Predict the structure.
Amino acid sequence: MSAASVPENPALSWMRAERRKALAESGDIPDWVQEYIETTDAELRGLREERDDLKEDLAAAMTDVTAMREQYALVRQYSTKSTAADGKTDTPSDANVSDLSVTEAYQRAKAEIGDDLVFLPSADASIKKFSEYKDPEKLHRALLDIAEAGRRWGDATLGKPFGEFFTDLGYGYSAKNPATRDRRHKRHYEVKYKDNPVVMEPHLKVDESTGPDQCLRIYWYLDESDKVIVVGHVGRHLPD
């Protein structure tokens, strides 16, 4: 594999191609040999593409390891914070949301939402990477709006599709995402829920921006059996 991964010298590649072309034009290569060469070349191209895909998968796996480490650090950070006698975290409850950091606004929303949404550890990890977002108040409001949609969906009072509900509130929304079925990108949309892998396809387009740290997206999975929205990512636009 190591030897095969070394690119061929361009000069040798050109000479080999010219020699083959000359042989083909002279008619010295039998048809079965020409067919064999073409088949072998096709298989070689396939192996090289597979090698490139494996390199991408390895890079993605390393990224996942980094994310898990950051997630672990985040959990430790919050588990070691001082707690008041009533059990509340030290995130200021009386401060304006606009004065909070992105992480504090996210934690405030989670506390206010309670059981109306399920937040996975991957969502907690993703918000840490989105700390430069300029509008914590908008993030907070979007999570509350999703919780409202989830609550109404759960008790059968939503009265309209999710898309119409979110459009009325001024958001962009997608129920389907082709990237979840694309071999190169689908791993970014896979999360673990109840010890099983699930795919986050619905997502809210909260903020549009050319900068990745300002383009806020919230992705989730719909638990049809428990009638609850399971949030798996709050932060940057996932690759598609």
Q: What stands out?
A: The first helix runs from residue 10 to 26. The two ends are 30 Å apart (CA to CA).
